[in-house]
Every structure is written in structure tokens, then in C-alpha cells.
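PT: before anyone asks, these are the final sequences, not the draft ones from last week. 746 residues across everything. Please model them as a single complex and drop the result in this thread when it's through.
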Amino acid sequence: MFNKKTLALVLILTFALSLSLSVAAMAQDEEVTLRFAWWGSQSRHERTLRVIEMFEEEYPNIKIQPEYTGWSGYWDKMNAQAAGDNLPDIIQHVRKMMASYVENDQLLALDPYIEDGSLDVSKIGESYLEMGRAYGKQMSLATGVNAPAGYYDKELFDAAGVDYPSPEDTWEDRAEMLKKLHEELGILGAATPASQEEGNGFVVWLRQHGQNFYSEDGKSLGYDDDQLFVDYMNYDLELIESGAVQDAMQRQESANAIEQDPVTQGEAASATNYWSNQLVAISNGAGKLLHPFLYPSAEGQVREGRFMKPAMVMTAARTTEHPEEVMTFLNFWFNNVEAGKVIGTDRGVPTNSEIRTALKADADEYDQAVFDFIEVAAENAGPVLPLQPPADPEVTTAFADQYWEVIYGMKTPAEAAADFREEATKLLSR
Amino acid sequence: MNNKFGALDSVRSLDAGMNKKKWIKENLTGYVFILPWLIGFLAFLAFPLLRSLYYSLTEYTIVGDPSWVGLRNYIEIFTDDPKFWTSLKVTFYYVVFAVPLRLASALALALVFRKARPFTNFYRAAYYVPSILGGSVAISVIWRQLFSSQGAFNDFLVAMGIMGDRISWIGHPDYAIWTIIILAAWQFGSPMIIFLAGLKQIPKGLYEAAEIDGAGKIQQFFSVTLPLLTPVIFFNLIMQMVKMFMVFTQVYIITEGGPLNRTLVYAVYLYRKGISNGYLGYGSALAWIILVLLTIVTIVLFKTSNKWVYYESEGE
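LR: through. Structure below.
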């Protein structure tokens, strides 16, 4: 137990320590400390800390104070700090959360720093820069990108004598492909013809027909003609009938784990509803490399509808006291090749072309395939998706509900299209 | 201790005398002993409970701060949320079938294990295992597998010639809920143990008397066992019902609320709204509604219990 003497001693020591700390702080007045927050796994933490070390070696007058956690709790912490005007100087962010931060004026626009040259983005392609923009301003930079991907089993395609999927395929070509695979091999062409429940396939479809899923202001649906919904669902229904894809009950019961997709068991020749960063997972499930492919294009399409998505983005807080040093760090992060090698593809395939080349040179077979695919995807990507409105998760659920009603045959596509419009309009106008 | 509480004691003793002092002393020890529980109760039960009551009256998304909206969440739930009614219907359907099935299987097994036979203890333990595992993710995954179209249940039915074609039990809108009800019925372990204890309480003399009066085994069961067991049945009924109203893991893993929301039980819907969609305020309101509903159902059961539960000590 404490007695008076030890208590006094502890007090004195505490005072002495804090005094010496503040003296030390005064002595190093010119040193700038930046706070950098990110979420991630252990491997990301280690990689990031190593990059910070490299940075501090090169810029000894800037100290980076890392603040890292897992995904859960990260946003609670950020939101609390945003409320207290105490955000870290550099914040790892995601596009789907950015809208409210930008609207509440929490983030620093990067345009002036790009213009005056303190932030170099010359090696980052225009489409990647677009991914960091919000409401026309460069509010962030994408750390890396993912693209929606299907995967196919080359051996099975060879056995069936079917051409490999190509970016030029139309939706009709793909339907033929799936049917032929089914006829020749007696297995599924794919579990589903496109990712549907989540709406990604539908988003591509709409864009190819000159429409959008959400309107520009995010207050309503971005397409007026329900026939688009109907055609899209009919496409699926016809394939279900042919037996080339799973029927409703099979889809309902199939596991959601990517490693157990029918394509990994040889029960389907391809899979359609995944992302480029899942190549390793699905290939591991299959025990061999499965090759990625893009969504089809639409016959006589109005514009390119396929898209890529930033895995995550880097932002700066508007309240930062050291914008110059923040730019120094971001410059290092996005342009230093050695740093890029340490970061790897952990935050998506890097957007800086020089870093991408360097990484590709060292990559294994699986990563090579991802790099190649991202290049193809970039060549075939339309405009970046606009920021999602806050009601997005609920609208997606509403879409999924109607999707199931249709493929279970409880509603016609036309009924479902109308019901979805009603529900989504209600959610979005709230 | 003496120093600290001496002053208080002396004040009390002025008006209440020595008895009061003794009372405090004795009870204080008691309070100190329950302090760990009390702290746990306040920190992990009372505080979160009140907190969620507050949240239920706010609009609170995962991204933002809670802002007061009064009863708006509740009004919306009752007037403008068809899925709320769907999930209530599904949950009641589930409870109405799963609870009696579980209790019946528990009672049946308890009757079998009532008499000591060789290995009875082993079997009692073995049959308890499902209810330890039942809530686990692993069992749910296996269940999913069992009742899938390629699963063992279909193998069995087809091999026995009961069915010509395989059916996706999990994917079928009408049958999916039953795979989960059967899983619930299978987890009869804990009510079974309680039934066993209840059966041991029934005096042997009553059976002997019944036998002398010429009652067969079946009549003995209905005239002696069942009436005397009603307090235990009642207890099990309440406990199991409360548990089943909150079923989550099994449904979440086996069907995720599908197909066509036919297995969208209340807890899964609550999770979807509160966590997946990020409406914590709305989710809290949903949680409070089920709490109140459960309380009402329990009270009704208690009221009716006078009519059918037989307490031996009554009237003494």
C-alpha cells in the first residue's frame, strides 16, 4: 500500500518527468508531428509501419504518429474525433463513407497542392484520380483499385471447345457461352449469369444503356425506364430455364464462401460475381489458377458501363496545421517506388504506373494475373461510379428482395421492377 | 471499516438503537459480497439497457451522432415497415412449433432415462451434447449441409424410396423454416436435464397407489407424472420460449433469413437493420419492442398458469 512517503515520491517523479518532456518538446520545436490513422490487419500494420520508418529516415524533421486499429471501431473513433475537430492529419478512408465527411467539411481539398506542385500526381492516371474526387474536387487519392471480375476454368473451357471470355463479348455472347458449356460438359456454365443480388451487374447494365443506378443527387433512382430492369431479369430467367445457371433454390442454399463456389469444385465452368482482389482466394479454393474476366458489354451500347473501384483512399483533415508536411508524406506514399514495394497490393493494385511496373516485375503467377487483369479492366472502364447515397445498404437490400421474388417465380419482372422503384424512391427521398 | 462507518453507525443508533446498527453491519457484508455481481449488472446490463432505450428515441447511424427524434422510430416500425410484421410472423411461427417440439422430445428422453439402466449416465451426457453444440456455428454449417439438395437427408429419403427427387430443403420457401425448427427440437438437452430432476421429485408412493388402483402405465403418466410435472413444464416453457424468441445464429448461418424472407426471424431482422444497414437507433427501437412483447407473452403465460400448473404445496 501507498504511504505518504512513496506517494510523495511518485508525485515528484511524475512532475519531473512531465517537466523534462515539455523541455524536450521545446528543444525540438522545429520538428513536426503528423498523425496518420488507418485500419487493417496485422500484415498491413507491419507494412505501413515500415513505410513510416522509411519516410522518417528521409525526412527527419517530420515524425509520423501512427494510429491504427482493425476495421471495427475505426469509424467510431474517427467520427468521435471529427465531432471534436481532432481528426488525424492523414486518414485512410473509403469512398462509401466519404460523402458525409465531405458534406460536413471535414476533409482538405487537394487541388491547390496539386496545382502548386507540392503533390505530384503525374504518374497516376486520370481515371484513378477521378476515383478520389467528390463533388468535383480532389478530396482524396485512391490507394489502389479493384474491378468486378468473373473467373473461369481454362481446362473446362478447352474440354468443351468454348472460346475464353473476352472483354468484347456481349451479354448475348455470354448467354451462348454459358449454355454451350452446360450442354457440352453437363455442368453449370456458372452459378449465376452476373452478380445480381448486390446489384453490381445491374449497375453495369444500366450504365451501358446510358442510365445510372442512382440519380446525380442521390435522391432517387437514376433510370426511368423499368423495361431495363425487366430485360435484365428476363436474361437471368431464360438462363435458369436452360439449366446453364443455378435455379433459385440452388442459389439460396449455395454457400457464400468464395472458396466453395461451384467453379472451385468443378461443378461449374466459370463464376461471375466477384472482385479482382479475390483471385488468390478463389484460385486457392480450386487448387489451381482460375482466370479473371470482365463483365460483357451491351450490343450497341451507349457508353462503356464497366467500372473499377478504389479499394480505399487517403485523405487529409481540413483541420491539419501542417498541410505542407502532409503533402510531403502523401508524395512519398504515392510516388516512392521502394515504399510502394513495401505496401504491395495490400491496398489494391497501386494507381501509380511506375510502382505498378516495379511490383509486377517481382510478382508471382497469381499476382501477375491480377495485374494483367487490372490493366484490361482499366482499358475497358467507363466513368467512375458516383458517391453512394447514405441509404445505399437499404436500397441494395430492397433490390435483393425483388431479385429473389423474381427468380423464385413469385413475381413477374415487371411487378418487381415497379415494387423496387416504389421502395427505393421511399428510401432515397427520406 | 470501523473507522469509516463508525460515524454513520452512531447517528443511526441515536434514533434506532442497537438493532439498526447490527442490521447495517450484517447487510453491509452481504452487499460487499454481491458487489462484483452488482458492478457487472450495472455495467453490462443496466447501463446498456438504458442506453439502448435512449438510442431507440434517436436517429443514430453508425457514421453519425445520435440526434433526438422522439417516438419516430417506433411510429415508423408500426406503420411503415412491412418487414417488421413479416419477421414477427416468422418468429411466432417458429416459437409456436419449435418450443412444444423441443419440450416434447426433452420429456420423452427424460422418461427413457428416468430409470437407471446400464450406461444411463453415458446416454444422458451424450444426449445433452446437442444443446451444448446447438448454438454453435459449426453445427449450423453441418445442418446446412445435411439439408442441402446434395445432403445426407436427401440421400436417406431417396434411398428409402420415400422421395423420387432431391429437394433443396433450405432453398424451398415452405420448408426452409422447418429445417431450423427441427434443429431447435434436436437441442433438447437442458430442458431434458430439468425434466429428469423434476421426475425424481415425484414420490414413488403415488405410483404404487395408482398401480393398486389399477392404473396402467399410460394412465399413470397422464394422471400422476404429467400433473406433478406441470411446474417443471411451466418453467421449461418460459425459459425455452424466451430463448427461441431470440434465435439468431442458426438462422443467420443456415438461411440468412431467406428464401423470400420466410425465415427472417426477429433477431436476424434486427441485426440487418441495426448493424448491416447501420441504423442503430432503429435497431434499438426494434429491440425494445421485442422486449416488451416478450414480457407481455410471459405475463399472459403466468396468468394462465393458475389454470393448469399444479403446485403440491398449494393451500397449505
